[in-house]
């Protein structure tokens, strides 16, 4: 009689983690952050509450990891060739020597991500909750936003070195000329978020950052 193969505990753990992360995203999309609970996530994932608490200290930690996992999978999908704009955003801001064109490519990718139904609901939920929950908001900025903003700083500094941006410009402030209007329109839904709008933001911002005659 052949020996019985022992269960693969690491594979079982991976399946449980995936089920928990997927359940967290589904619930926050369906009922919002406030009404999402550890109990609800556990029930949707088919695991016990203690399984969740073994890996995460709180609901906020579960949802943050779930969102980061979703963002990572979206980036991997972009890298596999599902879209040139998304691929550019996943890999960072290109440096072709044309600052406006490079920024338009990435801002268009950002528009696509913000308009993506899979990403929009959890992004809105975590963004809104981060406004009232300082700890969650700080984690959202540190884990997700700061690494992305650093890419803009790097590209703008390269543009300064090339003479395309004034030497007295602070790249960290300058990037907010690009990101701020986009997020304002998206968060408040004042007008449609489009590629054309992203292009206009870049034209206005780059014109203001360029060396003065």
Structure, briefly:
This protein is mainly alpha-helical and 213 residues long. Helices cover 77% and strands 0% of the residues.
Explain the overall architecture:
The protein has 213 residues and is mostly helical. The chain is built from 10 helices and no strands. The N terminus is likely disordered.
Number of helices: 10
Amount of beta strand: under 5%
Pick out the low-confidence regions. 1-7, 80-90
The shape, in one word, is elongated
Could you report the average pLDDT, rounded to the nearest whole number? 86
Summarize the amount of helix as a percent range: over 70%
Q: Distance between the terminal alpha carbons, to the nearest Å?
A: 87 Å
Based on helices, strands and strand pairing, what is the structural class? mainly alpha
Radius of gyration: 21 Å
Largest sheet entry = none
N-to-C SSE series?
A: HHHHHHHHHH
Strand tally is 0
Give keywords.
single chain, 213 residues, mainly alpha, 0% strand
How is this fold's topology laid out?
Blueprint: H1 9-31, H2 38-45, H3 49-55, H4 59-82, H5 84-91, H6 99-115, H7 117-132, H8 134-161, H9 171-188, H10 195-209
Helix pairs in contact: 1-2, 1-4, 4-5, 4-7, 4-8, 5-6, 6-10, 7-8, 8-9, 9-10
């Amino acid at each position: 009689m052949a020996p019985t193969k022992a269960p693969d505990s690491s594979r079982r753990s991976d399946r449980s983690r995936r089920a928990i992360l997927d359940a967290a995203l589904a619930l926050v999309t369906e009922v919002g952050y406030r009404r999402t609970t550890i109990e609800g996530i556990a029930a949707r994932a088919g695991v016990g509450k203690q399984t969740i608490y073994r890996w995460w200290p709180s609901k906020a930690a579960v949802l943050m990891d779930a969102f980061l996992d979703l963002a990572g999978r979206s980036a991997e999908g972009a890298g596999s060739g599902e879209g040139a704009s998304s691929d550019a955003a996943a890999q960072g801001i290109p440096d072709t020597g044309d600052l406006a064109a490079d920024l338009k490519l990435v801002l268009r990718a950002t528009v696509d991500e913000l308009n993506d139904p899979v990403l929009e609901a959890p992004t809105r939920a975590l963004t809104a909750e981060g406004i009232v929950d300082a700890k969650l908001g700080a984690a959202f900025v540190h884990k997700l936003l700061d690494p992305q903003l650093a890419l803009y700083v790097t590209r703008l500094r390269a543009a300064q070195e090339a003479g395309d941006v004034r030497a007295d410009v602070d790249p960290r402030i300058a990037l907010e000329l690009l990101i701020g209007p986009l997020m304002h329109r998206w968060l408040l839904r004042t007008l449609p978020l489009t590629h054309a709008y992203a292009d206009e933001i870049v034209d206005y911002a780059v014109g203001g950052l360029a060396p003065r005659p």
